[in-house]
């Protein structure tokens, strides 16, 4: 395998976005304990798995975390090795556009030649070696170039929760992987449109693993989302000064809440795509957790929370293809199949596996009823 050039390696940074929630994984995932700090597939949380991947790509000193200030305790507990100065605590949740822009500002302040690989804290990969190879190819492609690189995942069904990227001509090859021109980007299409994309071919899901030089993305904000660029630039100017925290709070208060995909990707003419074939998954619902997790002989998935205070077994009688995620309480299933049971200290979810996407509706109802203690 062609080695990533030493020059690119020295200027590569990883930014892990760790400020989101995960309402479809209620009641385990909540405002105070979002899904990235939950273990689903091992004794490690999704966030810890993201750190593990990042450490395969760059040294610790070039791993930055963008998180909500409410999650700082989790960050310090689960990744004490991350340098304090590499943790960007957002004063407010303003979605991915501002988070990625501000991260680029901090990295650019440190290294004008920086290339940034963005990881999500709630995704999983099956083949880490191939994932590393893919982002190295993306870094080579983006280094010292005014282009934005997206990792595309071959769609397997018409998902309406992802962005879709249509690819054009083959531009070049990096690390043996093709780099395609992006002709169109459509964020979260309706079902009919997603079905057309799937049938047409040449469309990829956007993994949100963007790679770009710090300068290229700041240029993109200035050109395509100047309202957000004003906020980002003021923060950039304040980094390292006594006014840094004050300006950060002020600009977050003023800034629009927008996804990177609508703020930049849908408008960009310099987007390219590298297909990613490493078993990528966005852990967005309980049926996805079931599909990805190890199963027993009867197809059951049993997961005890890593934050449980004692070891507790689950009793299963004549039950199959079920998912149980629990804390300390004894749970028994009798004569059921294809159900999800999520047992927490103050809330219990029971639903059919194929209805797991509707969990978000429960969360919306709780919001409407003002039952914030369960959110």
What does this structure look like?
The protein folds into two domains: 6-282, Spore Coat Polysaccharide Biosynthesis Protein SpsA, Chain A (Alpha-Beta Complex), CATH 3.90.550; 286-374, no CATH class. The strands form four sheets. The protein has a five-stranded mixed barrel with strand order 6-9-7-8-11. Strands 13-15-17-18 form a four-stranded mixed sheet, with helices on one face. Strand 2 (63-68), helix 3 and strand 3 (87-90) form a beta-alpha-beta unit. Helix content is 33%, strand content 25%. The chain is globular and about 60 Å long. The protein has helices spanning 6-10, 46-57, 72-78, 95-110, 128-142, 191-200, 214-224, 226-238, 244-254, 260-265, 286-292, 359-368, and strands spanning 12-18, 63-68, 87-90, 115-120, 123-124, 148-153, 163-174, 177-187, 203-206, 211-213, 271-275, 281-282, 301-304, 314-317, 323-326, 331-334, 339-343, 348-352. It has twelve helices and 18 strands. It starts with 5 loop residues before the first helix and ends in a 7-residue tail after the last helix. The mean pLDDT is 94. With 375 residues, the chain is α/β, with parallel strands linked by helices.
Radius of gyration over all CA atoms, rounded: 21 Å
Number of helices: 12
- Binned strand content: 25-35%
CATH C-level class of the largest domain is Alpha Beta
* CATH superfamily grouping of the largest domain: Spore Coat Polysaccharide Biosynthesis Protein SpsA, Chain A
Number of strands: 18
The first-to-last residue Cα distance is: 47 Å
Shape: globular
CATH fold-type name of the largest domain: Spore Coat Polysaccharide Biosynthesis Protein SpsA, Chain A
Parts with pLDDT < 50 across at least 5 consecutive residues: none
Which CATH architecture of the largest domain?
A: Alpha-Beta Complex
Strand order, sheet with most strands: 6-9-7-8-11
Biggest sheet architecture: 5 strands, mixed, barrel
Kindly name the structural category: alpha/beta
Number of domains: 2
